[in-house]
Amino acid sequence: MDDCIFCRLVRGELPISKIAEDEHTLSFLNIVAAHPGHGLVIVKPHVENIYSLDDTLAAAVFQATARLARAVKAATGCDGVTLFQANEVAGGQTVFHFHIHVLPRYKGDELLPFWPATAPNREALDAMAARLRDVL
């Protein structure tokens, strides 16, 4: 897509601080970083979200993400790493080109508020598992 910011980065039209690149993916530092070392891994072809990823791209992006997570941990000395990936507006997606954030995390940094914990009963869990199996 001509106006997609990540497609423009893949085409080399905008500057990036590149970390890695392969046939299917590109990794670079986020210019709006939560911490130094906050990287993004994107798929090179324009794929809007996880629902449209084929198996080849899905495997490639998660392999690249695992490599970047190990590099972020080693290079920053962070206490942990959070992977963040959002789909659709309701899911928090703001750039509509598939990407995964690799966030270095530190004890007490209070990034990314998490959902309130609930404890569904076994029957509700089993019913949802059955619905998901039916769709798969």
Automatic annotation (TrEMBL):
Gene3D superfamilies assigned: HIT-like
Membrane-traversing stretches: none
Biological-process GO terms, alphabetical: nucleotide metabolic process
Identification of the protein by name: Histidine triad protein
Signal peptide as annotated in the record: none
Organismal lineage: Bacteria, Pseudomonadati, Pseudomonadota, Betaproteobacteria, Rhodocyclales
Source organism of this protein record: Zoogloea ramigera
One Gene Ontology MF term: catalytic activity
Superkingdom, natural source: Bacteria
Ranges for domain HIT: 5-112
Active site: 99 (tele-amp-histidine intermediate)
PANTHER family noted in UniProt: ADENOSINE 5'-MONOPHOSPHORAMIDASE HNT1, HIT FAMILY PROTEIN 1
Pfam family, one: HIT
Residue positions of motif Histidine triad motif: 97-101
